[in-house]
């Protein structure tokens, strides 16, 4: 029978000192869902829409439209019903939509079979500050805006599975920032009024007239560490005929950047690892940890290999590298490092390569 012991009181203090995870990633629950406009409920129209819906789901989970050219994906697109969980019809603003849900585990298995990269459900949260051309002067896009660009940003984010926030733009924010700060890419000023938002990344987006076209630019920063000389993590710019085209190009480029950092492909190599969690006080916590690990896109197989007191070690077979796996752990807000590698009583596997010990925090 498993028995979990309570840690001494000083352990709680040590946890507070050593916790390093400050990310605010969110779980995206729509990676196996899509909506497609249809002209009718006729069977041929339905079949065409289901194929388009599965295409959207593949792109959400792989990050690239190029994945649709894969021969295994092409074969599956000819038979989307075999992955279908359910579908139905909804009407929005006079437009009939087919809404389809596919079995996410089988979608991921298909992508692995096709040797395509997969990004899991935990994804970083991005706060967007967007300066748009207005009537005579630039304006900032707010979360409550009724402009078409607000809905377009939501659709683009949903289609790529990129969680996002827009600022409230209340009086305090408007006194601390103006569109020129965003257009000038003054990230330190923008960051100074963004403290209330629990986001991982800060995206500054500027769209402004340039001759007969529009010039757009996007700079991405880690929200937690910005000053006047901080270079962007990622930058993208170009020209477009419309604001909609510019937003679409930037969101596609940003999605490609995120997927290059977080999506994990199967290298075909046998990669083994172990991960240890301390301070597990109940069997329910152990079950939650194991459930979480099993759904990670980086893990092929998981085995509970060691229990000592309230410290538990799992043995893993991985897709990709151990670094890829650790990057995914850093995105989970319920996980933090309770002790760095090789610290005394926390090193549960003697004579093994020192690893950090993680803490599972209940929401």
Identify low-pLDDT runs: 1-22
CATH-scheme architecture of the largest domain: 3-Layer(aba) Sandwich
- Residues in helices, as a percent range: 25-40%
Q: Output the number of helix runs.
A: 11
Largest sheet: 6 strands, mixed
How far is it from the N-terminal to the C-terminal residue, by CA? 27 Å
**Given this structure, which CATH class of the largest domain is correct?**
Alpha Beta
Beta-strand content bin: 25-35%
Number of domains: 3
Characterization of the model:
It is a single chain. The chain is an alpha+beta fold. It has three domains: 114 residues, no CATH class; 82 residues, no CATH class; 139 residues, 3-Layer(aba) Sandwich (Rossmann fold), CATH 3.40.50. It is 33% helix and 28% strand. The chain contains eleven helices and 16 strands. Strands 6, 7, 8, 9, 10 and 11 form a six-stranded mixed sheet that branches. Helix 5 packs parallel to helix 9. The longest helix is centred in the first third of the chain and has 20 residues. The radius of gyration is 23 Å and the shape is globular. It starts with 8 loop residues before the first helix and ends with a strand.
Element layout with pairings:
Elements: H1 9-18, E1 26-27, E2 33-37, H2 43-62, H3 71-77, E3 84-92, E4 95-102, H4 104-113, E5 122-123, E6 126-133, E7 138-140, H5 148-160, E8 164-165, H6 171-176, H7 179-183, H8 187-192, E9 201-210, E10 213-222, E11 234-240, H9 243-262, E12 271-278, H10 283-294, E13 299-308, E14 311-318, H11 322-331, E15 335-339, E16 357-360
Parallel strand pairs: 6-8, 6-9, 12-16
Antiparallel strand pairs: 1-5, 2-4, 3-4, 6-7, 9-10, 10-11, 12-14, 13-14, 15-16
